[in-house]
Amino acid sequence: MQKMSLLKRDLAGLGVENKGEEFEKELLPLIKHAQICIAKLNSSYHDEEQVREILSELMGREVDSTLWLLPPFFTDFGRNINFGKNVFINSSCTFMDRGGINIGDDVYIAPKVCLTTINHDINPFNRATTFCKPINIGNRVWIGINATICPGVSIGDNSIIAAGAVVTKNVPSNVIVGGNPARVIREIEGQKE
User: One of 25, 120, 127, 169 is an active-site residue; which one?
Assistant: First the structure.
């Protein structure tokens, strides 16, 4: 039986030890590549097309021409981010994407939003082991300034995440959530195409 790669273990939510020969061979080069790309992105002015070129280099595939991202931008990995069409990401956002971040169409993300898919083991003698869970963001979602989306969270279509919210559980479609931990504040009514 063939051993599962660390990349596949991350995406499957299985524990990965962040040290040792296997980590240094498989994941560390990708993490270092991400830091090189991020340093390039954040070191000087780039127009929208140049930003997309650097992001394509970071992600290892071409990003959609409708993506608009305002640097600075931070990520620990970069390979597991999937952007839909007409996505806007404001400045100073952090995406920790080893577990996978999937962003739908027409999504607006405010400054200083943190999307993190990774947690450390709660056992203090096993802290070097991480566990990942994907974040899935539906279409037409708006995430307010300084919100944090935790591992494993899915956000339904059309929903709004209030400024400063800490989202620890799934968010249904067509609601506004806020607080820490985030809870539904109200439903969004009057939806039209």
Answer: 120
Using alpha carbons only, what angle is made at residue 103 by residues 60 and 177, rounded to the nearest 5 degrees?
150
Report pLDDT digits (tens) over 122-163: 999 999 999 999 999 999 999 999 999 999 999 999 999 999
Phi, psi of 48 (to 5 degrees): -60, -40
Instruction: Report whether pLDDT(7) > 70.
Output: yes
Query: Using CB atoms within 10 A of its CB, is residue 9 exposed (0-12), middle (13-18) or buried (19+)?
Result: buried
Q: Rounded to whole angstroms, how far apart are CA atoms 13 and 16?
A: 9
Active site residue 33: no
Backbone angles phi, psi at 105, to 5 degrees: -85, 150
4: pLDDT confidence band, cut at 50, 70 and 90? confident
- The strand pair at 142-143 and 108-109 is best described as parallel
pTM (two decimals) = 0.95
Could you give the C-alpha distances from 61 to 14, 42, 55, 131, 135, in angstroms and in order? 25, 20, 9, 25, 20
Residues 23 and 17: their CA atoms lie apart, in Å, by 7
